[in-house]
Design a protein that fits this description.
Shape: elongated
Strand content: 25-35%
Helix content: 25-40%
Radius of gyration: 24 Å
Number of helices: 13
Number of strands: 19
Largest sheet: 9 strands, antiparallel
Length: 474
């Protein structure tokens, strides 16, 4: 069979779909699972090359081990022996190909699969020990002290926890104490998941994360025993979360991740997402699936984020390196200063130098969230000695469910009303002309969807600073 796409082939050979057959809990589903696994293992050397890419083989190893009860229930001796030999070959392959996996989450997943194989297969204590050592090492490399992932991707935290939690459970089931590195990573990462979650349960869309996967996020958070409130600042991941009343503002306040871990990173420095009372208003575009390479690259540009671009360029530059597209340059210096007033108003001042070398400007952004959460004021300033004819665009991508009304009364200051599904109306105003343009929001579960964006445009020489305001009317 010729796979219709690489995503499809990876999902097929990863065997993650076995959990759906298990959930069906019927004799037919069990029989189908056993037949498919038997056929695949009988011809495992002849499968498509994607089946033996390290992350896919790691996913398949974890899936087959975690669903062994489904696959082996009532199996005869020959099938059981085929299964065990295949698992041992998988473990041998993963041990040899560990360093062939890309740095970051793929390499951590290979380490977790190795540890799972060692723990689940008989007389593989050395493999389990070596696998757990590699997991601990990768956690030390990839997990930051605040619980974020070195890639600065919220999705990477979720994906890692989806594998680390079963590993912790497997270690305990074998009567062992999980390594401190695993326990510490889980304890630190759980609050970061809450940090990036809006009140409607959706993930903030930074660095490859999309709004899909709410079920997985809820499943993982069910294991959070602390149930703590999200922190306000993530100093190592370089994100800020401002909360007031029913409002939540999540801001990218950091430079791109290290080069080796930037394959999924976006040029979204100083971008933000804003939600109120469980409804997202302003978001970023997210990321499509890997097979849509052109769209995926476009979604990583600064223009796909709710922040400012200068001269229609990104604040970080994308460049292909082999099969990966990395962020090879971008802001080196990102400053942020946060303070809270006595009335609860929160002020966040930020800046980045991503345009300093190419265009001669530093982008400064000030965000002020009122104490009751009913108003968000912003000011974008372009400071430097670049050309005064340098054009700028400040974009505010709207969540697809947000309705838009553009008043016809030209005597009023420029404004656009945003109508939410609960009837609430928010008014966006600015001291520069506003435009309403098309946008696209990507979701891993729903694909792409059309939306709108508010754009404030001009030339730096005409408006070094742009003030804007989003406030609830009713």
């Amino acid at each position: 069979m010729i796979p219709p796409s690489s995503d499809w082939a990876e999902e097929l050979h990863g065997f993650g779909w076995l959990r759906h057959l298990k959930a069906a809990a019927t004799p037919v589903a069990r029989s189908n699972a056993q037949v498919i696994v038997h056929d695949w293992m009988s011809a495992e050397r002849r499968h498509h090359a994607v089946a033996w890419e390290p992350p896919v083989a790691a996913r398949r190893t974890m899936s087959l081990l975690s669903q062994s009860a489904l696959v082996l229930e009532g199996a005869d001796h020959d099938f059981y022996r085929l299964y065990v030999r295949s698992m041992l070959r998988h473990a041998h392959f993963l041990r040899r190909s560990f360093y062939a996996a890309e740095p970051g989450l793929p390499r951590l997943q290979v380490a977790i699969a190795l540890a799972m194989a060692g723990l689940c297969l008989s007389r593989q204590e050395r493999l389990a020990k070596r696998g757990l050592e590699r997991v601990s090492h990768e956690i030390g490399v990839q997990f930051l002290p605040d619980g974020g992932h070195i890639s600065r991707s919220p999705a990477a935290i979720l994906e890692a926890l989806l594998d680390l939690l079963p590993l912790r459970q497997t270690v305990v089931a074998r009567g062992q104490h999980p390594p401190e590195a695993i326990l510490g990573a889980i304890d630190r990462a759980m609050p970061m998941l809450r940090f990036f979650r809006h009140a409607d349960g959706a993930f903030a869309q930074f660095n490859g994360a999309s709004a899909g996967g709410r079920d997985q996020l809820s499943t993982v958070l069910a294991y959070d025993e602390a149930l703590g409130k999200p922190v306000a600042s993530a100093p190592y991941s370089a994100f800020e979360r401002l909360e007031a009343g029913e409002a939540a503002l999540i801001v990218d306040a950091g430079p791109p991740p290290p080069l080796a871990f930037s394959a999924e990173a976006h040029a979204g420095t100083l971008a933000f997402e804003f939600s109120h009372n469980g409804q997202r208003l302003i978001i970023n575009c997210g990321a499509p699936r890997a097979r849509y390479e052109a769209l995926r690259r476009a979604a990583r540009l600064t223009a796909a984020h709710s922040t400012a671009t200068l001269a229609d360029t990104s604040s970080s530059r994308l460049e292909a390196e082999g099969e990966r597209v990395l962020l090879v340059s971008g802001p080196k210096r990102v400053e942020r200063n946060r303070r809270q007033e006595k009335d609860g108003t929160i002020l966040l001042e930020l800046s980045h130098d991503g345009y300093a070398k190419t265009l001669g400007f530093v982008h400064r952004r000030q965000l002020v969230l009122s104490g009751n959460g009913l108003a968000l004021e912003g000011r974008d300033l372009f400071e430097g000695n670049g050309s005064e004819r340098t054009p700028f665009d400040i974009r505010f991508h709207l969540e697809p469910s947000v309705g838009v009304e553009v008043p016809e009364d030209t005597d009023m200051p420029p404004h656009i009303d945003l109508v939410l599904s609960d009837g609430a109306v928010w008014r966006f105003t600015a001291d520069q002309p506003l435009a309403l343009e098309e946008s696209t929001i990507f979701s891993l579960s729903r694909g792409s969807g059309r939306s709108l964006q508010i754009v404030v445009s001009g030339e730096v020489g005409d408006a070094h600073a742009v003030a804007w305001r989003l406030a609830r009317l009713a």
